[in-house]
Amino acid sequence: MLAFELHKFDISGNYKGEQKEPSASDVVTSLKDSELMKDALVSEMYYAFSGLFKINDCARALKYNKNDIEAAANWLVAEKE
């Protein structure tokens, strides 16, 4: 007969009193559109798509793709279809 033990793991990385680093979504959501537009890459991407995507979406795509504008544009198109 097999015996199984179930263990509970904290995979959030927020243990022993450590602060969890905010995600790209958290950072982008906390900023206003006017603050996001001060970033040259965010405004370039927003205007390149003629406002098709929200400013927050453009900023989030850039954060997820480490400011690689080509990868961010591809991600946006794939995610928002």
Task: Describe the protein in words.
It is a single chain. This protein is mostly helical. The chain has a domain at 24-79. The protein is built from 5 helices and no strands. The radius of gyration is 18 Å and the shape is globular.
The global form is globular
- The helical percent reads 40-55%
Low-pLDDT residue spans: none
Structural class: mainly alpha
Largest sheet: number of strands, sense, barrel closure: none
Mean pLDDT: 76
Q: Report the end-to-end length measured between terminal Cα atoms.
A: 51 Å
Q: How much is the radius of gyration in Å?
A: 18 Å
Q: Identify the quaternary structure here.
A: single chain
> What count of helical segments does DSSP give?
5
The secondary-structure element order is HHHHH
DSSP strand count: 0
Taken as a percent bin, the fraction of beta residues is under 5%
Question: TL;DR?
Answer:
This protein has 81 residues and is mainly α. It is built from 5 helices and no strands.
Supply database-style keywords:
81 residues
Secondary structure layout plus pairing:
Blueprint: H1 24-30, H2 33-36, H3 40-48, H4 55-64, H5 69-79
Helix pairs in contact: 1-4, 3-4, 4-5
